[in-house]
């Protein structure tokens, strides 16, 4: 098992060909239409809808909202938990509450469901906590024992793929093991292994050993659904199942095999990134959204707003390109002032006043947290800093007295807080993507600005110029 970099093109030339069944995705969709099972995706930040379209995302999970979602025709809906932004105890509480509410509503309506716990394609987030919480609570409520939990962090739009159990990021033609990237050094969710069997051991503090994992190899996947189903039918005891996959064709094989195995009584729960949901939900490909879908109708004379909170290096480079390549008005939020109670209010007031004035004049504005990362020793302390910065960015959105012609929020915590606290979104419709891996929501009737496109831009997605290109596309 290699944990060093390798060339993707030279690897591809040695691999067996993809399984060529022409209509697996369509067959998967038909299975859902006839079966009525709901796929409920618990999204630990708002970027997980980056591969899907024409489905709902809920930002709350009261029984009334869940009942409405369970009764809609689509097989898939998302619940934005935003747990990656919270301490572990709060993440656990949210997952418990959702499990209880979903189970209560599902038993009233007689609708079967499966949970997908959507985590990050660069392995950050609360694994195994979230899977453990969901499985334990469903077992307590119903007696159900899961046979396995599948770990599938593939996200092809951003070059995230798994081979020989090792998770890689593809940059150009180079496959880089994910533990060698900046994401592995995350102050809260860092890790040392790219081999997912070893990563599981690391994250479970040795409770699950590498040999306890079931590995589905690329050779097995490319032999087709029957070969994969045979393996899945043997899985029991809620063991981790790790699957090699380099393409959507590979995931279509897996998804079809899973549905066949579930049809024969197997029970699985999922910890995955964004690509899996698209294939398991039988969601067809859709073109990138045109410019017209990215602008709020009737607000064309106003400026657009970009809010940047993420601190990953990729975001900083994208911000630099945006500032260099457009005449967008730039407003830097001084994080040291925001963290100082004596200066916080003055700094926020300055930004709010400037943003409203510029948008009214028809100028595009980017508000960004100062780029020098303020960090402390503890992971809880770093989460608190992130939350304080995000709350200040939210106050700016909340204080808008004019509808921007577009809103882009950059980074997971930022885009979630802007959606729920800044724009007051309770339920939104995912209409597609502004660029590969960059989802667009249409805000609900209850939102501060209803029926407008809201572009959720992950911190770790796109090339250095993708943010610039997105704004340029909107401007035509």
Automatic annotation (TrEMBL):
Domain Four-carbon acid sugar kinase nucleotide binding: residue ranges: 305-467
- Keyword Kinase set for record: yes
Which positions fall inside the Four-carbon acid sugar kinase N-terminal domain?
A: 39-278
A matching Pfam family: NBD_C
- InterPro entries assigned: 4-carb_acid_sugar_kinase_N (IPR010737), 4-carb_acid_sugar_kinase_N_sf (IPR037051), NBD_C (IPR031475), NBD_C_sf (IPR042213)
Domain of life, per lineage: Bacteria
Q: Which UniProt keywords apply?
A: ATP-binding, Carbohydrate metabolism, Kinase, Nucleotide-binding, Transferase
**Is Ubl conjugation included in the keywords of this UniProt record?**
no
- Similarity comment text for this entry: Belongs to the four-carbon acid sugar kinase family.
- What's the protein called, per UniProt? Hydroxyacid dehydrogenase
Organism of origin:
Paenibacillus gyeongsangnamensis
Question: What is this organism's lineage?
Answer: Bacteria, Bacillati, Bacillota, Bacilli, Bacillales
């Amino acid at each position: 098992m290699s944990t060093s970099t390798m060339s993707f093109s030279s690897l591809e030339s040695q691999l067996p060909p993809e399984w060529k069944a022409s209509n697996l995705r369509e067959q998967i969709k038909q299975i859902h239409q006839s079966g009525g099972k709901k796929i409920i995706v618990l999204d630990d930040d708002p970027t997980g809808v980056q591969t899907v379209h024409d489905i709902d995302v809920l930002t709350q999970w009261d029984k009334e909202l869940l009942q409405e979602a369970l009764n809609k025709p689509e097989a898939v809906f998302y619940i934005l938990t935003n747990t990656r932004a919270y301490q572990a105890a709060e993440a656990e509480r949210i997952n418990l509450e959702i499990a209880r509410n979903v189970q209560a509503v599902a038993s009233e309506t007689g609708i079967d469901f499966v949970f997908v716990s959507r985590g990050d394609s660069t392995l950050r987030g609360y694994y195994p906590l979230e899977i453990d919480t969901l499985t334990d609570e469903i077992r307590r409520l119903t007696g159900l024992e899961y046979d396995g939990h599948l770990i599938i962090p593939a996200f092809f739009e951003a070059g995230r793929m798994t081979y020989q159990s090792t998770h890689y990021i593809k940059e150009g033609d180079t496959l880089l093991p994910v533990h060698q990237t900046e994401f592995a050094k995350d102050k809260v969710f860092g890790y040392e292994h790219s081999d997912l069997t070893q990563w599981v051991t690391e994250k479970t503090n040795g409770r699950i050993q590498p040999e306890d994992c079931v590995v589905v190899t690329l050779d097995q996947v490319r032999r087709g659904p029957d070969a994969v189903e045979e393996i899945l039918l043997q899985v029991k005891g809620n063991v981790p199942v790790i699957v090699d996959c380099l393409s959507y064709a590979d995931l279509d094989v897996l998804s079809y095999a899973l549905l066949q195995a579930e049809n024969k009584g197997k029970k699985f729960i999922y910890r995955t990134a964004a690509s899996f949901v698209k294939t398991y939900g039988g969601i067809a490909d859709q073109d990138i959204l045109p410019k017209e879908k990215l602008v709020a109708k009737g607000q064309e004379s106003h400026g657009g707003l970009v809010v940047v909170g993420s601190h990953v290096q990729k975001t900083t480079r994208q911000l630099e390109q945006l500032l260099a390549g457009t005449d967008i008005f730039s407003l830097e939020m001084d994080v040291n002032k925001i963290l100082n109670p004596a200066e916080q209010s003055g700094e926020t007031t300055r930004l709010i006043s400037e943003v409203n004035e510029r948008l009214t004049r028809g100028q595009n504005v980017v508000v960004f947290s100062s780029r020098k990362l303020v960090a402390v020793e503890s992971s809880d302390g770093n989460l608190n800093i992130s939350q304080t910065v995000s709350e200040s960015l939210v106050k700016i959105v909340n204080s808008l007295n004019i509808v921007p012609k577009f809103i882009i929020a950059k980074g997971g915590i930022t885009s979630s807080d802007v959606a729920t606290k800044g724009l007051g979104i309770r339920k939104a419709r995912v209409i597609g993507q502004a660029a590969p891996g960059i989802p667009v929501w249409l805000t609900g009737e209850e939102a501060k600005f209803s029926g407008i496109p809201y572009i959720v831009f992950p911190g770790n997605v796109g090339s250095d110029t993708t943010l610039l290109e997105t704004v340029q596309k909107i401007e035509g």
